[in-house]
Structure formats: C-alpha cells, structure tokens
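User: Structure please.
Assistant: Input sequence and predicted structure:
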Amino acid sequence: MASNINTTTIDTKYPIAGQDNDSQGFRDNFFNINANFIQAKSEIEVMQNKVVFVAEFKTPSTADGAPGDVRGMTAFDASYMYACTADYVGVGTAIWKRVAISTW
C-alpha cells in the first residue's frame, strides 16, 4: 500500500526569522499538516485492521501450527520467513508456509 501523505505541501522554511510573515502562510501550513495527520491516521487504522499482532514472537514448530495460530500471522528466524495461510484447525492441515531468506 502506497502512502498518500504529501509532505511537499508543507513549507518547512516558514516563518522566516526577522521578517513580517503573512498569517496566510501559517494557516496554509497548519491546514497541510493537519491534512497529513488525518491521512496518516487513516493509513494506520487500515494497517491495524489488516495486521495480526501477537504478544509473543514465535516461529511455528510444525507446518500444522498450534492453537492460537491465525491466518495472516508472520514470523521469521535466521533462515526462514513464515506465513500462516489459515486458522489453526488441528494436526494434519498444513497452515504455515516458509520461504528461505537466502532466496530473496
């Protein structure tokens, strides 16, 4: 997902010290900063709703996983990246896929 935050609309050199600065510049900067905060909040909420956060970092001990494993979980170790492709349903259904990091 590409970000739609646009920092080019913020004048980082405004106000100019030692000069009478037009208040419109302050209003424009505030508006643009606020618009970017609103956009950032929206993008963060999208990620929070799509990413599974786990309290403990663990790599799967088997492809079948364990109780509590849910689709979308990820893990990695020194050699592999793991992706959980389905919710845990018990032994006999492989839900974890792994890819060797060396292949990237």
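The CA atoms of residues 69 and 88 lie 5 Å apart.
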